[in-house]
Model the fold of this input.
Amino acid sequence: MADAHPFSGEPATTREAIMQATFHALREHGYAGLTIQRIGDHFEKSKSLLYHHYDSKDELLLDFLEFMLAEFEQAAPDDDLPPREHLDAVLDHALAAKLPDDQREFTEAMVELRAQAAHDDRYRDHFTRSDETFREEVASIVRDGVNAGVFRDVDPDDVASFLLTLVNGAMNQRVTAEETQTGDVREEVEAYVQSRLLADE
Done:
C-alpha cells in the first residue's frame, strides 16, 4: 500500500485537482463545516467547474470516496509477494504504530466521512464496498497461504472478516482517542498469525 495519501503531489487532471481540494477542505473544516465554496478556496481553477460537475457537497464527497477506493486498490501490495510477507505488508500498513501528520489527517477525514454511513445509504453503500475490497484482498492472501501449505486449513473469509473488524476499530480509535496502542495491537495480531494461521513446520 502507499506510504502517503494520494494528495501529496501535484494533480495530473482536473478531477485529481478537485479531489485534492476536497481533501484539504475536509481536513480543515470537517464534514459539518464543509461547503463547495470552501472546497473552491483550495481549487486553483475556476470554482464554476465545481458547480458544473457537482450539484451538492455530498455528491462531490461520494465521488471523492470513489476516487479513494480506486487509489486503495491500485496501491495494494504486490501480488507476487509470498502469502506470509503479503499479509504482513497489509497489516504493517493498516496497523502502523505511528502515522505521519499528513496520514493522520487523512485518516481523520475518512473516519469522519464513514460516520455519515450511520444515516445515509449512499455513504453506507460506499463503505460496504470499501470494506469488501479489503476483505477480499485479505481472504485471497490467506487462501493462497492455505493452498501453499504456509497457513493452516482456516476459513479465509472468517479470518479476513476478523482482521477487517480489528483494522476498522484501530483506525477509529487512533483518531478519536487521546492515546492509542496500535503498535501493541500489531504485536497481538502477529501472535494471532503465528498461533492461529501459520502451519506447523
